[in-house]
Amino acid sequence: MKKTFVILSTVLTFSLFGAGEMPNLDWKLVNGKMANWSGALVPAKDGVVLKKGISYSKQKYLIGEKRKVQVNFTVQGKGSSIGLYYYTKPGVILGGTQERIPNADSLKSFEAVFELPEMAKKQKVGSFRVYFTTPENLQIKEIKMKFVD
Amino acid sequence: MRYFLLLLLAVNVAAAEMILVKDGVPQAEIVLEAKPSKSAQLGALELNYHVKMITGAEFPVKYGKGSAGKIHIELGGDNKPAGKEYSSIKFSGNKIKIMGSDDPDFGKVNYKYRESFPKRQYIGTLFGVYDFLEKYCGVRWYGLTDDATSFTPRKTLAVQVKDNYHSSPTDAFRSNHNSGGRAKMLAVQPYTPRDEALMLLRWRNVSYFGQTNHNVYRIYFTHWGKAKKPAYAALFKDRRKHYFAQGYDGRMAPSDGFVRREYPNDADLPPGVCFSEPGVVEFFANQAVEQWQGKPMVGLPSNGHYLKRLEGKPFYSSVQHQDTQGPCSCKKCIEAAKNGQNHIMWQWIADIANAAAKKQPGIGISTLAYQRSLAYPEKVKLPENLCVQMCLGIHAWWNPEFYKIQHDEIYKKWMKNKGKKVMTSWIYLFSPSWDSKTRYKHKFFPGVYPRHAGKIAKEMAQDGMRGYFIECEWFCSMLEAYVVNKIFYDPSLDPDQIVDEFFVKFYGKAAPEMKAFYTELENIYWNWKNYPASMFGKNSIAERLRGHSLGTGMLNANNNWSIGTAERMAKLSGLLAAAEKKAAGDALTLKRIGWIRKGYWNQAVEGRQDYVHRMKVNTMPEKSIVINRVADVKGDPSKIDWSKQVSAGDCHTTEDGTIIPGAFSLKLAADNEYLYFEFVEKKVQKDPILWKNYFEVFMSGKDKNQIIQIAMAPDTVKPLSYKTEMINDVLHTKGFAFPLQYKVLEKDKSWHWQMSFPISVLGSKELRRFNMNFRRYSPDYKLLWNKFFASAAECANQMGYVAIKGGTLSANEKTLSFKESRIRKEIGTWYLNHGTISFTADPNTAAVKMKAKDLLISSEQIPVVQGDVVTIRWKADGARPSCNVQPFYGSKQSGFKSTKTVAKGNNTFESTCVIPAKATSFRVVFSTAKPIDFKLTAPVITIGAGK
Asked: How far apart are CA B288 and CA B294, in angstroms?
C-alpha cells in the first residue's frame, strides 16, 4: 500500500514538469524550511535569496544515456557561481564542475550546459546535483534543468 | 543422593590433574609410533624442549610402546589427511593422546636443522603439542627466541585432565613475513633462521591453497625474449609482443625485479601483460592446468614453488600481475579502460578462471585485490572459482576516513558479494616505521595497536576470511602480529584478554608500567584527533589513498611527529624508566623492556630532537637561483665564460645548519639544449674516493616522481648517474645512462670540474625550472644546499629551485582571447568583481563596463619563471584601465604587481613587468578607481628572458 502511494506520487510529480525536466527544484517550504534546497535561502518576492555560501539541490539526479545537462536560471547578484557535483550511483561524491555567473544588477536569465564525465576517480559517475555559490545575496528567481543530447 | 554423587564425580573429574613431572622427576614418557611422522617427531622434540625449560626434566622418548607404570604421552597417529586440518588432545587412564592430521612424511627430524622440519601443511600432531603447551602448561611464544617465550618455572608440572579438539576455520593459509626489518630485528634481538622457522610453526603457520603474490613472469620468458638465466631462457618459444602491454617501447619502464633482472638492458620491456589479448588468457589457463597436474613450474618466483593440489582441499592457480603494472594502450584495452583499470583487471582474471575451469573442472584462480584492483568490480561477473586475497593496510585504519574507504566501502562490499568465492587477506601490519623507512627517512614516533589489530582480525575471521598473510616489521610490531595470529587460529579468543595476559606474562613485576606504556602509545597513535586537521576533510589524505592498498604514505615526518609531542614523549619515557626500575635485578624482564628501548624508543627520543632541529632548519629560506641562458655551446662546458655565471651560493652543515661561507663554488648555466655545471673547491683533497669524499646532486624536472642523481669524487673518471622512482612503496633506483660530459680540471690541490648534460634528461628540452639539491661530503665537512636531506626518495620534497632565464618557448606569444563559457553567449575567460563583460560583433573585442574599484581578471594562468620579462600588448577603445600582473606561487597568490605601461598610439598600450622571485605563473588583471566603459581587444602576452 505504502509502495503504491510512493509510485503514484512520483508519477504525479513528473507530470507537473515539462518534457525531460527534472523535478524538485522549486522553492517549496515544508515546516518553514526549504524542501528541495540546502543553505541560507530566504524567500523573496521573486524566488529566493541565497544570503551567503552554498545552496545545493537536495535531490541527486540519476544519469541515464544522456550526459549533457542544460540549466536555465534567472538570477541577480555578483561574484556568484553555478555548478554540478557528481556522484556514484549510490551517492559517493566524485567531483564537481563550476562556472562563474556573470554579474547582473537586475534579474537576468542564463542558459548553461554542463557535460558530465563518464568516470571520475576511477569510478562511474551515476548521479549529480546542482548548486549555487555566492559571496553575498544572490537572488534566484527560477531554475530548470533537463538532459540534452 | 545418587545425582549428588554423580555431580561430585563430575566435579572431581573436571578438576582432576595429571602430574607429568614431580619435584623435577619425569612421571611420563613420550610414546611415538615405530615409524613416526615428522610432525610427531618435532612435536616430541618441542614438548621436551619446553618441559625442560619449565621443570629442568625431560621425558624419555619411546617408540611403539611405552613402559609400564608410566604416564604415556602418545604423539601422532593420523597420517592420512583428508582435507581437514585438526589437532586433538585426549585423556584416558594414564594416557594423553595428542594427534592430528599429519602428512605421511616420515623423514628424520634433526632439531638443530630447520631444513629437516616438516613443511607447513598437515602437521596436526605438532599443533596439538603447541595447543598442549599453551593451554595446559601455560607457555606463550611472544617472539623469536627463548627469551621471548613465557612460562612459569616450576619443579612439578601438573596438567588438567580435559580433552581438547581444535580445527582452525582459517583453513587456506596462515602466514607471516618480516618485511625488510630483518637487519633492525637482528640488531635488537639476534635470531637465527631456525628461530624464525620455529616461531612460525608455534604460531601455527601453514599454507594449503590460495596464497598469492606477483608471479606473471613465465609469460615473459616464454613469449617476450630469451631470459638471461639459462633455465628461464630454455622456456622461450617465440616472440609475441602483442601479449604484453603496449606503449612502452624505448621507455625503460620500471618492471618487477624478477623480470628486469632477466632483461636488464631491454628498453622496450613492458611492465605488464595485455589484459585484452585472448592468447594471454589462454597462457595462464594452460599454466593453471599444468599446476593442477603438478608439473614443474620453472620461471615462477621462489624457485618455481607453487601450492600443489591437496586431497580434499580446493585448488587455485595463482595469477597476479606485476607490481609495477602499467596500463596497456592497445585499442581494446583503451576501450575497456573506459570502465576503469579495476574493471579490465578483474575481467582478465574472470576470463582466465572461466577458461581454466573449462579445460579442467575443479580448477580455481587465486589473485590479489590490490591497488587498482582492490575495489569490488561492480560490472564484472566474477566466477565462483576465485580465491581473492584482499590487500588491506589496517595499520592506517586509525584514520576514520581511510577506515570508511577500506573497511566500509571496499572490505564489506567484497565480503557481502563473496558468494562461494574464497576470501583471504594480505594484511599490512605496519607502523610509522614503514613510512619513515620508505619515504621520509627520519626517525619516527612509534605507533602500536595490538588491541585494534586483534579486533579487526576477529571481525575478518568471523566474516569468513579463510587465510591471512601478515606483512610487518617485527622489531616494532611483533605484539600486533602475535595477537592477529592467535585470533585467526582461534577466532573465539578475546583480543583484549590476549593483550592483558601478555603484559602479566611477559613483563612480570613491570607489567603495570608496560601496560600503561603500551596503552598510552596505542591511544595516541589510534586517535585521529591527535593528528593535524589538514589531513582530513576536503582533499583528505585518505581520499588520495583511495586506490592504495597499503595505506602507506599516510604519514610524513611532520604529521607523525605532530602526535609525538614533547609532553607525550616525557610521559612515555617516564613509564619506560619506571618499568625498568621495577624490573631491577630481573635480567630477563630488563632485556625484554630493552627490546622496546633499543628497538624503537631510543630512536624516538633522538627523533624528537632531530624534529626540533629540522623545524629550525625549515625556517631557513628555501634556496632559489635564476641561471643564465647562454649562447649554444653544444654541451661543451669549457666554452662557457664561468666568471659571468650564477653561483648556487653557500651551503650549511647537516649537523646543526650552520652556514659555511665560501666552502666551494658551484655555478650553473644553460643554453637551449644543455645544462652546465662548474665546481671549484680550493683545498687539498683527502681520501678522494667515492662515498668518502664526494659531491652529489639530485634533480627533479617535469615529473616530480622521478629523481635524477649524479655523484662523483675527485678521482672519478665517469660520474655515477641514477634514476629513482617510487612505485607501490618499492623504491626503484637504477643506473641511468645519458650523455654526460664530465671533465676534471684539477683534483689534488683543489677539486675543479665541469659537467654538462641535455636538459631533456629532466623531462623536456623546453624545461625552464627544475628542483635541485646537492650535498658535499668530505672528511672535513658534510654540507647541504637546501634545508635537509633524508634520501633520494624524499629529497624531491626537500629541494631548492632553479630557474633558467629565457630560452625557446613553445608558445612565445599568447593571446588572452574571449571565449564562451558553459553559460551560453557569456564570456568565460574573463570576469569582473562588480561590472560586466560581453561579446561584441568582433570576436577579438569585448565590451567592458567597470564599476568603481573594479577588477577585470583573466582566468588563465600563464607559467613563468622568476626574472622573466612579461610584455602585455592591449587596446582599450574608450576609457583606459590600469594593467597589472597577479603572480602565483604554486597555488598561492599574493597581491598585484603594477606594470610599466607605455602608450603606443591608436589606443594601444604596452605594459611590462619582471616576474618576482619564486613566482610560477601569473594572470593579467585590469583595474580602475572610477566607473569606466571601454572596448577591450584581446591582450597579447610575450614572455622574454630577463637581463
From this structure: 10
Contact A109, A74 (CB under 8 A): yes
> B324-361 pLDDT, tens per residue?
878 898 999 988 888 888 999 999 999 999 999 999 99
User: Which residue in B has a C-alpha nearest to residue A98's C-alpha?
Assistant: B822
Which of B779, B649, B759, B655 is closest to B714 using CA atoms? B779
pLDDT digits (tens, 9 = 90+) for B79-120: 888 789 999 999 999 999 999 999 999 999 999 999 999 999
Q: Calculate ∠ Cα B278-B281-B282, nearest 5°.
A: 85
Is B839 within 8 Å of chain A by CB?
no
CATH code of the domain in which A46 resides:
2.60.120.260
Are B133 and B139 in contact by the 8 Å Cβ rule? The answer is yes
Q: Find the CB nearest A122 among B342, B828, B835.
A: B342
Do residue A110 and residue B823 have CB atoms under 8 angstroms apart? yes
Average pLDDT, chain B: 92
Asked whether residue A93 is domain-assigned, the answer is: yes
pLDDT at residue A10, as a whole number: 34
Residues whose CB falls within 8 Å of the CB of residue B537, separated by 6 or more in sequence, listed in order: none
> Residue B793's pLDDT is what?
56
Q: Which chain B residues are closer than 8 Å to A111 by Cβ? A: 823-824
The CATH number of the structural domain formed by B813-944 is 2.60.120.260
pLDDT at B431 over 50: yes
Return all residues near B297 (Cβ < 8 A) that are at least 6 apart.
B218, B287, B290, B291, B304, B305, B306
Q: What is the C-alpha to C-alpha distance for residues B631 and B629, in angstroms, rounded to an integer?
A: 7
Q: Is residue A13 part of a domain?
A: no
Does residue A18 belong to any structural domain of this protein?
no
What are the boundaries of each domain within chain B?
15-167, 213-363, 624-804, 813-944
The answer to whether the Cβ–Cβ distance between A113 and B338 falls below 8 Å is no
CATH 3.40.50.300 fits B15-167, yes or no: no
Residues in CB range of B451: below 8 A, 6 or more apart: B483, B495, B496, B499, B522
The per-residue pLDDT for A16 is 38
CATH of B624-804, one of 2.60.40.1190, 2.60.40.10, 3.40.640.10, 3.40.50.10260: 2.60.40.1190
The closest alpha carbon to B318, from B207, B229, B242, belongs to B207
Give me the residue label for grid cell 606504556. B517
Residue B938's pLDDT band, with cuts at 50, 70 and 90, is very high
pLDDT at residue B819 is higher than 90 = yes
Number of domains composing chain A = 1
With an 8 Å Cβ cutoff, are A103 and B372 in contact? no
The pLDDT, as a whole number, for residue B794 is: 57
Q: Which amino acid is at B475?
A: F
- The values of phi and psi at residue B438, to 5°, are -90, -25
Q: What is the pLDDT of residues A41-94, one digit of tens each?
A: 999 988 999 999 999 999 999 998 888 999 999 999 999 999 999 998 888 889
Q: Are strands B71-75 and B95-100 parallel, antiparallel or unpaired?
A: parallel
Nearest to B580 by CA among B504, B517, B522: B517
The per-residue pLDDT for B797 is 64
Report residue B676 CA to chain centroid gap.
36
Q: Is B901 helix (H, G, I), strand (E, B) or coil?
A: strand
- Evaluate whether B15-167 and B624-804 have a shared fold: no
Q: Count CB neighbours of A30 within 10 A.
A: 8
CA distance B222 to chain A (A): 33
Domain for residue A58, yes or no? Answer: yes
Q: Which of B939, B914, B769 is nearest to B846 (CA)?
A: B939
Mean pLDDT taken over chain A: 85
Neighbours of B75 (CB within 10 A): 30
Out of A11-15, B394-398, B802-806, pick the least confident. A11-15
What whole-number distance in Å separates Cα of residue B280 and Cα of residue B737?
33
